[in-house]
Amino acid sequence: MAVHTVRSPATHLHTGTSRNISPSHRNPNDAIRFSFRSPKLRRFISVSSSLREGNEHGKENSVRALEVKKIPEDSPLLPKPLSSNQLAEPVSNGSRVRVAYQGVRGAYSESAAEKAYPNCEAVPCEEFDTAFEAVERWLVDRAVLPIENSLGGSIHRNYDLLLRHNLHIVGEVKLAVRHCLLANHGVKLDGLRRVLSHPQVLDQALAQCENTLTRLGLVREAVDDTAGAAKLIALEGLSDAAAVASAKAADIYGLSIVAEDDSDNVTRFLMLAREPIIPGTNRLFKTSIVFSLEEGPGVLFKALAVFALRQINLTKMESRPLRKTPLRASGGLKYFDYLFYVDFEASMADEVAQNALRHLEEFATFLRVLGSYPVDTTML
């Protein structure tokens, strides 16, 4: 596996340096499958999936499914999210930058994409994987995907996908999240029995609103994403269910807001591209890396010291177990083998940052720079 560093004409960094490492560090991520507890929701999702994948004419079947529900061609429920088997089809509305996001119209990710790239063509994707692949296959120009939330924590799936794919982080955007409880018109709060949203990805809406939902005595059910929950409520005309989603989703799908959450809630999104940007020193930059270490006392301390000794501030650290070979034998004991994701405040154009990574490379078993990019300093 190769050790990657950012190439910058201004700093003359060396690139393409390769090092052989053990097979345990190759392809460390496996695909993750999500299961849904609700039989009704599972039937809805599996039917949609079979229409796309169970027939070689999947696209035509999807159109027929929409016609059965009598959704007009100009309905805001369209377009459908991009699926993995549509990645070969061109998507463009002209010269606007095309930005992939996970979810359907009204998702917080759509708002983040529009904040990151004003006047962009936002392209919905069914899965995070699909958004990564759409950029790699030149179907879109960029992707904007969530990486952490101030209440729900890290989006682990996207950490894993950052390593699996060869995209570069070229920026970040922070979005203030305001959850609303959405229901069909005429439905009262005391008539609700269950609430739909995504349990973990994006902004982990159910976890964030746990106290409110518990107080109302609502049963929680999982669906693809927050805006997808609102879409399902509208399509099915449910009278005993509500969705945790955005006010924008309420407008798009014709739902009413029956309650709002006023928690301080921010989601940080990454902007991904096929090529890295050239780092500069004219503004505040952040660099994201991933590395692994040999097992031993003080090894992680030594890794962090390469930054502390140079007065480089770390803003984020996340550990993820290697999925292929999570356990390592040492001295008769078995240990978890980890990857460490680190964000630090420095540009790869700075010599001090280059020296820190050269130092880390001396003893790290794997090191890759995911991106060096401007910090989002805009007001929420």
Automatic annotation (TrEMBL):
Subcellular location: Plastid, Chloroplast stroma
Polar residues compositional bias, start-end: 14-26
Span list, region Disordered: 1-29
Superkingdom classification of source: Eukaryota
ACT domain mapped to chain residues: 288-374
Primary location: plastid
Primary enzyme class: lyase
Entry keyword set: Amino-acid biosynthesis, Aromatic amino acid biosynthesis, Lyase, Phenylalanine biosynthesis
Pathway(s) served: Amino-acid biosynthesis; L-phenylalanine biosynthesis; L-phenylalanine from L-arogenate: step 1/1
Enzyme Commission identifier(s): 4.2.1.91
Residues in Prephenate dehydratase domain copies: 98-274
The protein's name: arogenate dehydratase
GN (gene name): A03p037510.1_BraROA
